[in-house]
Amino acid sequence: MSAYIAKRLLAAIPVLFGLTVIVFLIMAMIPGDPATAILGSYATPENVARLNRQLGLDKTLVEQYVIWLGNMLQGDFGRSYTLNRPVIDEVMERFSATLVLAGTSLLLCSVFGLIAGVVSAVRQFSFTDKIITFVVLIGISVPSFWLGLLLILVFAVNLRWFPASGMFAIYGGGDLPDLLYHLALPAVTLAVVATGVIARLTRTAMLEVLRQDFIRTARAKGVTENAVIYRHAFKAALVTVIPVIGIQAGFVLGGAVYIETVFQWPGIGSMLVKAISTRDLLLVQGGVLVVAAAYVLFNLAADVVQTLLDPRLR
Amino acid sequence: MTDASAPARRAAARPDTLRLLLNNTLATAGLAIFALIVLIALAAPLLSLPDPDATAPVDRLLRPLADGHLLGTDALGRDILSRLIWGTRVSLLVGISATLIAAFFGSLIGLVAGYAGGRVDTLLMRGIDMVMAFPYILLALAIVAALGPGLLNALYAIAVVNIPFFARNIRGIALGLSRREFVDAARLSGKSNAQILFLEVLPNVLPVIIITMSTTIGWMILETAGLSFLGLGAQPPQADLGSMLGEGRKILFTAPHVSIIPGLMIFALVMSINLLGDGVRDVLDPRLKSGALTRPVARTAVAKGNMPDDVAPRRDAILDVRDLKTEFRFGGEVFKAVGGVDLHVGRGECLGIVGESGSGKSVSAMSIMGLVPTPPGRIAGGIALLDGENLFTATDERIRQLRGSAVSHVFQDPLSTLHPLFTVGAQLIEAIQAHRPLTKAQARAKAADLLKLVRIPNPAERLKSYPHELSGGMRQRICIAMALANDTKVIIADEPTTALDVTVQAQVLALLDALRREKNTGVLFITHDFGVVSAICDRVAVMYAGKFVETGTTEDVLKAPAHPYTAKLIDCVPVLGQPERRLDAIEGRPPVVNNLPDGCAFAPRCPRAKDDCSEAPIPLTELGENRTVRCLHPLSAEAANG
């Protein structure tokens, strides 16, 4: 098993490598001269040339990439010119906030998505099934940034149950209850779409599994119907659902961009949006790379869980 | 117990796709809403709306239903209704354009990769995998960051991140198509690769491209709106739904309608597209049509009212089935898989049911303990007595108790019938504990004993194995051990040796034969192979099109088959040293059981058929003690007559 995990980790290296290539190429296709962009239109040609040399922009693309990658492997992601601090420090600080939000959402969507999907499949064609199917459809169609605003209006402005923004109370906050209190609305909003996707898939997976021969065998053994559904069918369905939960991690991490903006969550998403409007490209690049790498690791974790469940994959 | 399912009923009449789609209320609603939104957006210039960009500081932040402003005004006093309709135009245009761009490039990549195969395929697909390794929106953000905020750049970004969906879907189809005969034919006729790709392959891929577009377009509208919401898409004074929402957010607490209304529009648009897309998918998904996505209930449904209740059970029989009728309903059509079968099995006796696939032999056997999937299956009539107890009127809980304890099953393919994710030990222990209050340790010891009983060496070790780690013969021994877990009275074995190779088959048969004699267990043995019948069965029943056509002791039937079908089946058994006999398969196919002829169902394939064979139902006639045949011109009668 540990050999398998090591193998998967090794296989993730080229993917991470590919991510850096794509990010580098995107940043290289920026129109215009970055030095001019940084220094502004009043920069003297000497200053531009000096900055170009400093930034290594007078070298070939491949050389630039190798230097760039080498720096990053040493933890040097450059310096954010708007914040005047190392990119890596800012990104890591922000990323921990995003991880709290996205992790909670991923947990919520897995739990509720699986429950809804199983209930829906077990009671196929019933009223419950129809209601769940319809709510799921609403869930995957609703713009999450709009849903966030609605929840703020209802639960923060009108009912005053939860705060409208932030991660901690400004005065006297900082403990776990305070965090959960601030986390509730954004985490739920972020989880809605992924819950719908997971519920749908779970329903289909359960229905497919319940047609399998080994389910008939379980019934022929005289196992109770509950055991048939929750032990035999659910475990087999989980094997197909787990990778999708891994993929949903990507949608949750990406969706965090909206939700962090709506709820002013101090995470990497809101940082990215601000960095893009202020053209702080090193910050964008660092943030994108860290989140993408986290996504690769989430998928890796999903792979490992799937393998733990399914002995045939070992 | 449910009846035939709703989607199955819908598929029955086979109307054209559009009609099917309209039958789906939700899909129709989706279509109507989407069409309405598109029409209004298209008609925007004709609607004499106020200028969407005309500011009027005096009228700022009017609530909906204000005079002259149906949906109120925004922070600059602009009419929200007008901005909404013009914004919808922009959002639709951007979403559709992004979809078209993604579809074009994604399909092109997919087509080339699938058609070219080899290194080109690997290279392109690795690139696609890399793009997919990014969290979806993040890549779009990186692209917007590089190109700079703006509606067109947001459009490009969303299109790029959606290319992989098209490329993957199309590649799969193109890969399959490029190996088909018509592509080879086109190649031989001297057409160039480009000609083949665009004239032969593309038309066949088009439906998939359209389906993928219909499932991604809502998504793309949502995501471009999202980028605009973040201030990275449409820049003022240009406005789409997302940027309207984003601007309104700043005054959410004072004037919520400014942001709620455009959000509602995005929601309506995406929801209508998704409803429609689901409808399209439901109509096109073959799994829904065939009912493969319908959950079977725990026990076969039993039709009430067709059951004889005062049947005196045969005294020598442990299992006694009379006039069993089982049918399948697909939509309006009824397939009478089993059309009135009588059978009985005594203690320690083995009854074989023989027939081709589709003859109804498995369905007969599975009906007894209610293991025919419902929907679509249903027991339409008859009675099954186990030791005098009526199985068709027993409660579900009673049937559960009897399954695996009084009546157990061995199925055909032990790889698919054993749960792949549990060890064989866990599965055996479960079978034991389902019927006996044993501790786990006791059950484990019992499971090891069972493995010893079926001659599996090293039982304690084997219990820890997963099914895929064992050989086919070993797996089937596990299944037999599971069937013997609880001193069963009857074993129903449904082609238990068909998936095994010949030597293993002989071993498994010998084992089953020895065990039933040892434990005095009745066996109902389903097979298509008379060779297997002769090895294990005391008596045999030959089945065709849902009915028994001949019964008798194995010896009698093998020596002098009376029904021409029986004779044909016996001729199919390969004999060592006579390989040419195997070629003598039965011409034609068994009939489909939804529309059986009145007379003999075998007549169309029978070399001895005469006119009277097709006239009226043919009864089962007695030929002697324990010997019946359903034939007007039986072989043995001819032999007897000279």
TrEMBL record, chain A:
Listed A to Z, the keywords are: Cell membrane, Membrane, Transmembrane, Transmembrane helix, Transport
Principal localization reads membrane
- List locations, semicolon-separated: Cell membrane
Q: Where are the transmembrane segments?
A: 9-30, 95-119, 131-159, 179-201, 236-259, 281-305
ABC transmembrane type-1 domain: residues covered: 95-301
Membrane topology note: Multi-pass membrane protein
Recall the GO molecular function terms of this protein's record.
dipeptide transmembrane transporter activity
Query: Would you tell me the Gene Ontology cellular component terms?
Result: plasma membrane
Q: Which family does this protein fall into?
A: Belongs to the binding-protein-dependent transport system permease family.
Name of the protein in question:
Glutathione ABC transporter permease GsiC
Automatic annotation (TrEMBL), chain B:
One Gene Ontology MF term: ATP binding
Q: Where is the ABC transmembrane type-1 domain?
A: 88-277
Enumerate the Gene3D superfamilies for this protein: MetI-like, P-loop containing nucleotide triphosphate hydrolases
- Domain ABC transporter, chain residue ranges per copy: 319-570
Task: Give the UniProt keywords, A-Z.
Answer: ATP-binding, Cell inner membrane, Cell membrane, Membrane, Nucleotide-binding, Translocase, Transmembrane, Transmembrane helix, Transport
Pfam families cross-referenced by the UniProt entry: ABC_tran, BPD_transp_1, oligo_HPY, OppC_N
Instruction: Tell me which SUPFAM superfamilies the record gives.
Output: MetI-like, P-loop containing nucleoside triphosphate hydrolases
Q: Does the keyword Lyase apply?
A: no
Which CDD domains does this chain map to?
Answer: ABC_NikE_OppD_transporters, TM_PBP2
Cell location = Cell inner membrane; Cell membrane
Q: Does the keyword Membrane apply?
A: yes
Where do the TM regions start and end?
21-44, 92-116, 128-148, 197-222, 251-277
Q: What SMART domains does its record include?
A: AAA
Family classification: Belongs to the ABC transporter superfamily.
Name the record gives this protein: Peptide ABC transporter permease
Instruction: Please tell me the species this chain comes from.
Output: Rhodobium orientis
